[in-house]
Amino acid sequence: MITNKQRVLVTGGSGFIAGHCILQLLEQGYLVRTTVRSLKRESAVRAVLADAGMVNGDALSFVAADLTSGTGWAEAVSGCDFVLHVASPVHTENVKNEDDVIVPARNGTLHVLRAARGAGVKRVVLTSAFHAVGFGHPHTDHTFTEDDWSVLDGPGVDAYGKSKILAERAAWDFMSAEGGSMELTTILPVAVMGPVMGKEISGANHIVQRSLDGQMPGYPNMWVPIVDVRDVASAHVAAMTVPGAAGQRFLITGGPAIAMKQIGATLKAHLGDAARRVPTRTIPNVVVRIAALFSPEFRSVAADLNYVKKVSNEKARRVLGWQPRKSEDAIIASAESMIAKSLVKN
């Protein structure tokens, strides 16, 4: 039963994080509108959400809008109290032209903010990323917080990272110049794992899939901070209404960074025979560095070999009242959902 008449727009409804945001908003009784590039996708997205346990599906509506165009956004935000701007260009490897990722991310964010301000939206929650905080820096004992910004041209900053940095900076610049009474909050998750949506594998779930499939010959000497997608969604929903969240950035992590080989060890410890292809060996640093000369995929890895990034989630816990799952829970949930959906080899 619908108990909350406030309407929320979630951009990019077919996405991993957006889908989990929609599920939680509907469960809490909000009216939810979401964007897709074409309304032909509505039935497929509804089917994915229903499979994931959607309740109050009659409170969900769809509208067509694309980050690359300003059209459609006025209709999308009309009558909305809040906007969760989750949509972002797909993170593709081997990007030939960085602007193919950067321009739609930055311009799309501005399309959404302008439309939201014009429609009298109270607050926009923007999905940024740890890529906008903890990349391109020298290797020190520093603990990363919301006060940090990544070095745009620093080592290990790829096109996706640049798109997140520039889109978030553009959002804050817009707010200071012409945001009016509208509020902005940004959410910066680390590597996102957890239950997959439909047949799509997004975010850091690829690490789990490739491990289970036997596609990883071994793990580099790299440490990864992880957060569960369900906790990323709950942070967005909390940031929407908590008074103290206005004008703030929130770094979202499930805990300290863990060694990539620990991801494999977690899978083997909990999944039995399903984890038989998961590697146990470590890839020597020199091999990773040589691979980085030829493969963009390895460059960001090579930049952070043997470096454990310290990340604080204290602010999210304190201001949002946020309580995340353990990183291991996200890894296991990711694997179990892929196995259940036959997304890994038998």
Keywords:
Rossmann fold; Epimerase_deHydtase; oxidoreductase activity, acting on the CH-OH group of donors, NAD or NADP as acceptor; 346 residues; NAD(P)-bd_dom_sf; 40% helix; two-stranded parallel sheet; 12 helices; alpha/beta; seven-stranded parallel β-sheet
Describe the structure in brief.
This protein is an alpha/beta fold and 346 residues long. The protein contains twelve helices and 13 strands. Helix 4 runs parallel beside helix 5 and helix 8 crosses helix 12 (327-340).
Gyration radius from CA atoms, angstroms? 20 Å
Please summarize the sheet with the most strands. Answer: 7 strands, parallel
Structural class: alpha/beta
Shape: globular
Q: Can you write the helix and strand succession as a string? A: EHEHEHEHEEHEEHEEHEEHHHEHH
Helix fraction by DSSP (H/I, runs of at least 4): 25-40%
Integer average pLDDT: 93
CATH superfamily: NAD(P)-binding Rossmann-like Domain
Strand line-up in the sheet with most strands: 3-2-1-4-5-7-11
Could you give the count of β-strands? 13
| CATH architecture annotation name | 3-Layer(aba) Sandwich
How is the CATH topology named? Rossmann fold
- The CATH class assignment is Alpha Beta
Q: What fraction strand?
A: 5-15%
Kindly give the count of domains.
Answer: 1
List unreliable stretches of 5+ residues: none
Straight-line N-to-C gap? 41 Å
